[in-house]
Amino acid sequence: MYLNRKFLETNKDNLKNISTGSLEEMPERVIQFGEGNFLRAFVDWQFDRLNRKGLFNGKIVIVQPLKEGMINAINEQDGLYTLLLRGIQNGKQIEKTEIITSVSRAINPYSDWNDFLSCASNPHLRFMVSNTTEAGIAYTKTPFPKEECPASFPAKVTAFLYERFKKFNGADDKGMIIIPCELIENNGTTLKKYILHYAADWDLEKEFSEWIEKNNFFYNTLVDRIVPGYPKDEIEGLTKKLGYEDKVIVSAEIFHLWVIQGNEIAREELPFVDAGLNVVWADDITPYRTLKVRILNGAHTMFTIPSYLAGKNTVRESVEDDATGNFLKEGLFNEIIPTLDVAYEKKMKYAEEIIERFLNPFIKHYLLSITLNSVSKFKVRVLPSLLRYCEINNRVPETMTFSLAALISFYKGLCSGYSENGNEREHPINDDEKVMMFFNGLKNQNDCDKIVQTVLGNIDFWDRDLNDVEGLTDRVSYYYKSIGKIGMKPAIEKLLNSKIAG
Asked: Taking the mean position of all CA atoms in its chain, how far away is CA 447?
């Protein structure tokens, strides 16, 4: 039996140790760009909690941001899915199983553009959330969409808001509260900037831009929860235990934090705190963001590709391994931490907590799932620490520099790395089309130095020519050649041995 509304209505009272959200009919009040694991285990879960507490009374309509996605599976289950929350809390192992009921349906705008636009006519709609990865909030020259969905996320949002503006004649009370969750600095402010940019490009009425400015509220945010996603290795046992099949089941850690910066309007309309959720409304999210992005996300991005190409599959397995675990700790504690202008005790405590969260025995966070859009992730999460280290020490940080060389190896395919049995590992690469085209253009380039210089010189990737950073090109080339010659794990061990000897 599959999880869907009919199954749940019939069997709700028979599901042991499974907490179920409200099955009441509710209006769609939230439009969400992104159907991935994180949003469903973080944002949708929190709206589900509001509904359970009787504090919201609203459903979420999901919009698939890419042409290919998982909305069919979501719709087949009537928007229902199981969330497994597992981790350590106050020294105790905690496991919770919840059926989330806050999602009403999902739309593919590429095949159902008019259905997507029709959501703009919903008078109950008030909130917009998104997570289209760091690459999503970006400006790309795009013509005004008529019957075809644009690839650009901000262009989709602009078209949607323009449709809403027209349907309600620019009514003051039909503006939206927009809360993006992408891990870029000033995500709300940046999204608003691009929407106004498209409005100007498309020569839309000035009244529309004025409505955006006056009646739509954009919030900068920071999100924090480790979400491994679909528990594929456990699914047979979980299905038997649950008593039903769930194609979009998702697992996550217990810990969660949502920091939202903005005016009082959203705080009053979204009583997350009253529901007992760890949501912080802050005048300035910068301190929170710096710690989280540079330490948790930075560490993830820094060691994920080296660990995978060294034969590891999960975050926990990587931390427990001598080579990849020490690689992580070397980069985190000796290179990233010293670059942060935060009280020593605070940043060290957070870093140590992160290591504990990485070692969560309940979570299988697959390295390959983290490699999605690794170029933009490296730019946002690791590069600021790398450059700051150079400024402070007048030399490059060896571990982060090695990580950059590993990223190039991963994308270029010069070296597939080596698993522990000595065989090369295949690795699917998932990134923005422009990134894929760039590396495809290097396919026949065999000069290692030239490859590194070309990648570091891609201003579209890094917003600057990294060949200008003294010593960086030479060290990246050195590690790139080392990885290609002896394999990833021996190259990591060689790096660590040189650090000990130094």
From this structure: 34
